[in-house]
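Worked example (supplementary).
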Amino acid sequence: MIGARISRWTMSYFAMALAWLFIALALMVAGVGFPAADLESPDTLVLVHVVCIGWLSVAMCGALLQFVPVLVVRPLYREEWALPALGLLGAGLTLLIAGFLALGGRLPAWLWLLPLGASLLLAGFGMIVVDLGLTAWLRPAGPIRFVLVGLVSLCVTVAFGAVFAFALAGWGGATGAVMLASGLPLHAIAGLGGWLTLTAMGVSYRLLSMFMLSPEVDDRKSGTTLVAGALAMAVTVMGGILATWLVSGLNVVLSIAAILGLATVALYGRDVAGIFRGRMRRHLELNTRMAILSFTSLAGTALLGVVLVSTRAFEAQVGAFVFLAVFGWLSGLVLAKLYKIVAFLTWLETYGPVMGRAPTPRVQDLVAEARASKWFVTYYTAVWLGTLMLLAGEPSAFRAAAAAMSIGIAGIVREVVRTRRLADVACSLRLTGGASAPALLFAKT
Amino acid sequence: MRNELVERMRDALRVVIDPELGYNIVDLGFIYDITVMNGAARITMTATTPGCPAAGFLKEGAANSAARVPGVVSVEVVMTFDPAWNPSLIEHAARAELGFAAVN
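After joint prediction of all chains, the assembly is encoded as:
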């Protein structure tokens, strides 16, 4: 196969993900969930799942549907599964959220919504895992190994989540109740650490090398980073289940996992620094400059974790720690790369078919980086201020920071829509050689 | 005469750009070889990576642009990744224009 096909539904995944992100931001601005409510309150569960499933996981799945075939140089196992999977994820999350609202008394006590929502999510993620997993398995080398470990972690996360959902509805039996009582950290670490972070790391290796024309990270080096990350996940999940079974508490397991997690971040930092040092393109595009702010947030998260643990304040401040990881590191990186991926795919869809027949613009001509950069800076500044406000115990100021984040995101989304609309392309080149304008929410392939 | 035709084809191929690098595929060193025999042209070319979604469009674009050159009757484009492309294949002038670091 020469050249992966353009993924038809990646834009739809991105659009749905951004819609969920706006819902999450609206909740934060309105003061629903943490920090106004406890971390384990139903309102916080709503907020956390909107962010982690609706925004981050859906965006990541959309990116992987395009990216895995590029890495493996093979078509997806079942391209036609992408849209039904998106439907299942949207419906499943909606029902799960309704279930949490029922749990908190905001809806009638229809707790059966929780297992129903979890089952649909299980089906949606199941299709994604099989589709991507069977494709990725054809060439398990380089960054694709991170994606495979990420997919395994996704399975673990969803399995934990399903057990919790059944247990909350009273259908989980004694095992479900035990897991629900102590397994929450395992679910969160597998999701944020294994699925989202390891996958983002793997994808970033390739994207950074590709966009900066830098040599690929040596497989042995990135392999060491992956082993540390995979060990952290294995210790968390297997050690955590064993500790829960033995009723011995999770402290030892989580301490070992934290050390391995820190080692993973340090090794990843070494790898990324090597990519930057070896780059041929001296000028950094906006997406790469903004990715640096995301890496800075990851380093900041690690440092914050060390400081909080050493001052015995981790438990009290875990919300701030997770917030920085989710919005500074993961969301920041996803937004920066989404900005670039949309421009690249839009170019391919619009101008690829007319190449050779007429002069075409460059990918860079589809975006206005100077204008977009202020929205990214607004977003990151708001995230860092929001983290400080959480640490300082200032919920009102945190809501103001969330409002500023919303402004930044709205600006970024406006730029992305302009890219899809070819609004920044010079008129003489916009629909050159009979090119046809792309649809906003899917690719006309 | 034949060399002249090859040169005209190289010029025509410059309308095809790598979308990411924003530069034409000739000066980026993507065109490995052009041969013409009795109007039948054969272009051997590459792209940055085999899986890149642009690779298929680059191949098609090269065929489209070459076919427009007077004297060319048919075009066959062969995409190869052996040897793999690397930045040292970029023409000096293009390298400077793209703001690249020095490469061997």
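Two points are worth noting when inspecting this output. The first helix of chain B runs from residue 2 to 13. The domain at 2-98 of chain B is CATH 3.30.300.130 (GMP Synthetase; Chain A, domain 3).
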